[in-house]
Model the fold of this input.
Amino acid sequence: MSKYQYVPEPALVKGDHDFSSLTRLVTDINLRPTPKLWYLAMLGANALLMVMVVAIGYLIWEGIGIWGLNNPVGWGWAIVNFVWWVGIGHAGTLISAILFLFRQDWRTAINRFAEAMTIFAVMCAGVFPAIHVGRIWVIYWVFPIPNQMQMWPNFNSPLLWDVFAVSTYFTVSFLFWYVGLVPDLATIRDRATDKIRKVTYGIFSLGWTGSNRHWWNYEKAYMILAGLATPLVLSVHTIVSFDFAVSLIPGWHTTIFPPYFVAGAIFSGFAMVLTLMIVARKIYGMEDIMTNDHMEKMNIVILVTGSMVGFAYIMEFFIAWYSGVEYEKAIFLLRATGPYAWAYWTMMTCNVLSPQFFWFKKLRRSVGFTFFISIVVNIGMWFERFVITVTSLSTDYLPSSWDYFSPTIWDVLTYVGTFGLFFTMFLLFLRFLPMVALAEIKAVIPQADPHNYDEETNEYVAPIVEVPEPQSEKV
Amino acid sequence: MAQIFPKWTNQVPRKILIGLIVLLNAIIFGVWYFFSPEYTDVGYAPEQPVPYSHQLHVDQLGLDCQYCHTSVFESKQANIPATQTCMNCHNQIQTDSDKLALVRESWQSGKAIEWVRVHNLADYAYFNHSAHVNVGVGCESCHGRIDKMEVVYQSEPLSMGWCLDCHREPEKYIRPVDEVTTMGYQVENQLELGKELVDKKNIHAPTYCQGCHY
Amino acid sequence: MLRPTARVAIINNVKDSEITDQQMSEEVKQTTYWKSLKELADNKEYQKFAEREFPENATELTDGVSRRGFLRVMGASVALAGLAACRRPVQKILPYSKQPEDVVPGVPLYYATAMPVHGNLVGLIAENHEGRPTKLEGNDLHPASKGATSIFNQAAILGLYDPDRSRYPLNKGNKATKEDFTEFAATHFANTGQRIAFISDPNSSPTYNNLKEQAKSKFNNSTWVTYEPFGEDNVIEGNRIAFGSRLRTHYNYTNADVIISLNDDFMASTHPNSVEYAKQVSSRRKVTDTNGEMNRIYAIEDSFSLTGSYADHRLKLKASEIEAFTYALAAALSSRINGLNAFSGYSNQFSDHKWITVLADELAANAGSSALSVGSQYKPEIQAAVAAINQALGNTGNTVNYLDVPHLDDQNNNQAFADVVAEMKAGNVDTVVMVGVNPVYTAPADLEFENALSNVETVVNLSDYVNETAKKTTWHVNHTHFLEAWGDGYSYGGALSVIQPQIQPLHDGLSEIEFLNVIVNGEMTSGYDLVQNTFRGFFSSGFNDRWTNILHDGVGTTDNFNAVNVRLSSDFASAMNQATSNVSATSGMEVVIRPDATLYDGRYANLGWLQELPDPMTKITWDNVALMSPATAEKLGIREQAAGKDITDVVEITVNGKSIKIAGWIQPGHADDSITLTTGYGRDGVGRVANSYMDYTAGGVNVYPLRGTQNMFFASADVSNTGDTYEIACVQDHHSLEGRVLYRQATLSEYKENPDFASFESVHTYPLPGLGEAIENGDDDGPISLFEEQTFPDYEPQWGMAIDLNSCFGCGVCVIACQSENNIPVIGKKEVKKGREMHWIRNDRYYVGDDADSPQAVHQPVPCMHCELAPCEQVCPVAATTHSDDGMNQMTYNRCIGTRYCANNCPYKVRRFNFFNYPKEYLTTGDDPDIIQMAMNPEVTVRFRGVMEKCTYCVQRVNRAKIEAKIETGSPKPADGTVKTACQQACPADAIYFGDISDNDAEVARMKRNPRNYQMLEELNTRPRTSYMAKLTNPNPALA
Done:
């Protein structure tokens, strides 16, 4: 008996599934009548959505003053929420594009799901930059449209870069997602029995027949879009971080921001995917596809990115001290000890401490614990943005201007409301679109491998994994 | 399996795409043109309480602009004349014309005649007449051929872009100061004359915001 | 599109106003602009806009409904924005019917006038736009002003347009007309035998005082009392004790090398002659080079005063200890100089105090060139001692003069007032005539003035508001504002001026001379005639020319009160022996009552500008507090105000059985076991700004109940912590510089050793980063920059500002002047508490020094720095803030979309955001919005909701000057000094210099060449156009 043991790569799809069983497992959800639970959930989501609509309505009617902002602190929850949602909107495209390029087959179980989340998260994010301005009715001035004033926007402004970065990211992510959907939509179209479904799914599957030529185009398009999306994943949050890094406010004016923001984004993105996945797979019985192996892999990503974020926090401190700039030094000390220490230590605990538990395989594979941590992480990431945005502003250069920011009920309602938007969209997605990339998941089960067929009978023969006995050397 | 869609639908996506592009451009152009003062304001000719005809007084009787608009060289406003000014002549001429009833009434009562404003800049745009006429911007350049107007109307957009056209290249429009009130002023060598005047008058029309907005 | 302004609206709708031409104003029919503006307000179209754009509600906005609507009015930001909304509204232009002479529509006119402050005139110049005064400025020719002003002078313009002013006479509370009153007066005062008590504000007007004499002689049973809650009677009595005659003390600090203030805050606006004194004192601290010399200022005081913060040495003593201290000082001096034998041999607990020796030596060494003064609230004996010391030092004639002021009564008015009230109580008075005074609110509590009043049959009063007193009268007559009526009077030092009205009375009403004339002669005579008659007396020959001159200059040629050549009176010594033998000092806790820094005795309580002006020392707005030292606070268990939390503990203060509850506040440097209260708050039914609410939402607390005839100034008190809390709106949470070199100072001698002490290198010990590299690249404008540096064309002037921290003493008049000039709204306590104050220039106050118990307080005015490499400009997505060719950081309101990114990125935090539509509901308040509208400066856009705003270097003045210069000289460069920013013009210490820095001979350029000149946060390479000149102190080595 040797001390070494060969562990075969676990199968990506558990249970004994073939193509048709998978098809049924996934698309039945869209074809069978709507469950009561769904309506209930939808009701809740819409209620929240209404909250958002009201909060925004009152904001536009009354003015930014209904929020807690004041003179030193010109940006509060709105910007925090914006960055937070954009961050969450990172996982999807990362999973689908980057992991695709790296041929990480396990992505297929969750990419559709994650991309959907991305798109909806970016929608939520997009709400805030629009509404946080004082005069929303002239916000179109940020777009370079020819006008009688002969005025262009200021292309030096990071806010303007934001507008372009986020909208580009949204567009490409959306296309990427849609292209991926086409074959599966066709599947549903073909399985659909009633006219309405046939027609609607038919329209959106763009006359897909599954011909070799279609597949060939599809693969190309998918590859190209993946290539396009990959740099965007990095660029979006880099540019979002410029909103802060380009300014000269102590605690904002930091070169480490871009990588640190991207890491944070992936961190929170994966956490959010987990939160949703764990619930969804339970309700829709997808444990065979979204397995604990997936969960564990994602937990490892969380562990890594979480540690990167932690490193960044410490690095900020070091640089602040190393730079010798008194204002930098002051702001970081104030974060840890000043009026907002509570927020700072919440952030530290949630983002740096909590992921460390994932060093233990047991915890990595524990569904309950993962779910808990995934939520903790997102709370932590919200506080990270809060700490960055608010503390730096409230105690910057001139002590005379220092002031404390506290939110009003309207800050809170607007934030809570965006969850309404998010879940409304997400529930619609779960109901009407295949939540797993069917065409892709089929490609990663053994049945997809021609070698697993008997030459004569063309019968499927499940592959046998041979474990070679290693030579135990003499002592 | 039966076809859901007829053949022609193959063309639909392409058509939609093209349609969208056209629509988008149409919208941008629409905003750019139809929302501009060029379209909205030019030609605004409200009816005035007293049917005063510049055509008659300026073109036929040859009054100079400054006979009535006296403060144009020293104030930011080119004042609307006091009733007094009308009465200078009209206590001898046309003394019982019904058209002038309101003027005479105002003169008796001391109550102002309520003229309707025609050239109306946005409140946040600061315009100073004296600054312009004293360096040779003609009345005509902004107000058009007043001498040909039976009823005064707005003949130029008075939009920011329109102002900038001149502020960026004054030489194209500038004229000698003594020609400021001339109507229908024309020289064929405008450009070189303009350049001369710009140098002579040391004109640097502000193109920064605070020139007009504060 | 919505437009944040009403410039055109205002101009057009006020242009039609019938102008009040000064020389002929009494003939001019009134009303016209009313009408036109009313018409405008009634215009349906217009109200639609108003309603659509200024919806109801917004409870966040302010405090309490009536107050809310009103603050927006007082905020005086015009909602005529409605006019300029999406659809094109029809606008009317109403020209004059008969155009007055010398009025060119659109060109402002400036007329001289004068403002009575505590009865003394301060010469002013009023800026008029088509017949409505919009801004008041100092008159260079007037000795009490020298072109500068106090906060009260600046805020007077808002007082004129205050919709809460009394609008018509009241007969037993019912509306009446001034004709009714004249009728009543004619009959009622025909009975000359009746027992009449006249209670009047101090008034220096010769016309008024003639009528006063007539009244006294006509009504043979009458008594006349001049009542002023914080009057100068003690000083005058003191001089009587010292010199035998009632004289006014008038200092001339220009000749003083050493200034000692015994709890006398003579630089603060609350002092009747603050502007002149501030000018004089600061003029002796202008150090332009290393040969410069400075005066030396000592302050001995209980609470931290402006004078104290400006002093080189400050000693904190309880108010009650000053008396002993003064006598000890006199005694110490008696051994050094002659003339103080009265004190020789005397000694008390202070006699071997270090300061006594130091001060005595200092005074003796500077005999003849020193000035000693004591707070006017101290009793006459102390005043006398101080007068004697100045006399003995030979300061009389050099640094101090004793003026014979004809209109001062020959009686101790504090005493006389008490007597008359007693008489009233006893029912021995038939008629009381009150001119201006508000004794029901301000009289010492133990006199129970209100009861006394109820025993009087007929009570007549003249006042600006239907205030506490007016409510108790048989006849109330509404007083005209000084900008509405003719008047005359003397400055504190005796310069004669005519008060020239700028506008027809908005609410009719009577001036005090017209009022008194009606009472005396039973008939209405216009103030114009009354004043002219007086001056016919003065100008026997060549009346017309001299009359025109005095109107034109705003001040007559030398008509000063003559300075008396005083000698110590024979019974001075005995008086002093008596005084020194029973020196009273309160043991235990004492409470001190002072006039409020911004509301004075309460007469300015309804002016939103002053309510919202942060107290110069505490930086508190909208409230008064109980100031106490950290030690005392600890004793009482009053918590330090936490960062961002404006909650404070409420204390209960009891004096002779009367008690009040008021928020406690920690004032570093305050004397221990002492509490300072300020008056003017806790009003009831005066006006919507002044009114206080019992639920503590705002308005402060009335402290007069604690004030008795025996303790007008201080009294021993019982103080306890109630355990309640109260929210205070304080604009500065953090009082330490955190060791940051934002404020730089050195002693005079240090400066002489190292003139460059304020340079970056000296304060940081390493050179400015990036400068070396820049110079290598041949660019010496500043450190290397990532951004392309803007090149400023030489055909444009290059504007810059220098603020001399050595002159600024923190009075805050710059803030009010700016507010008045730039249409800055008042936003209310709630908004201020949220940290949304709108002031374009603020006055930062820091406590520095190691000794936490008695730190040094420094003041630093911070306007926009107009950085050449402005951080705000880089980040605005729509280029709403950019740079002009003449080097200004421009804020284009109408382009702003309100991302607030610029404010975030401003290291100086000088940008202000319109979080709400502060002028909201402006037309729907039902308060004749047009009145407040008239206070607007038509040259400045009124900002709308959601846009950023900030200091513009008064660009409207700059551009006007540039246009005029261009037309006259062909170059847009105005001569140096032709453009003054509002803050610069108002500053009594000449601390602010502004001009073209590209012109080497310009004053501002000279100042910037001074080695003391430094830039705040220079290392950020923002290249501010506003720079500071480091402060110098002149400490006495003996105390170092």
Observations:
- The two ends of chain B are 72 Å apart (CA to CA).
- The mean pLDDT of chain B is 88.
